[in-house]
Write a structure and sequence with these properties.
Elements: H1 8-16, E1 18-21, E2 24-27, E3 50-53, H2 60-67, H3 71-77, E4 90-93
Antiparallel strand pairs: 1-2, 3-4
């Protein structure tokens, strides 16, 4: 509930970190003072590295066994954080 003398919109805007000007809310972006997290560089899939296109039914375990690569190395080379891969994905096979 808004305090006495303050509109509901003004109270909500203040709580959300925005300013209300002539009925239009303008975001006060505090992100200008913080540094953004840089995105990781793209995975290098150049010709000197082997790649594999994931097929229906493939798992990280089956791919690691096929190529003789530890699952953790396969996940690290492809920035996979869980166990999910999908048909159509392209994986880099580390050497």
């Amino acid at each position: 509930m808004a305090p006495p003398g303050e509109s509901k919109d003004g109270f909500v805007a203040k709580a959300a970190g925005v300013a209300v000007v002539s009925g239009i809310a303008w975001s006060i972006l505090k992100s200008f003072t913080t540094s953004a997290t840089p995105s990781p560089p793209p995975i290098d899939t150049s010709a000197h590295k082997q790649t594999y296109h994931v097929s229906q039914g493939d798992t990280l375990f089956s791919i690691s066994q096929r190529f003789g690569v530890p699952i953790d190395d396969l996940k690290a080379a492809n920035r996979v954080h869980g166990d999910d891969i999908f048909a159509g994905d392209q994986l880099v096979i580390p050497k």
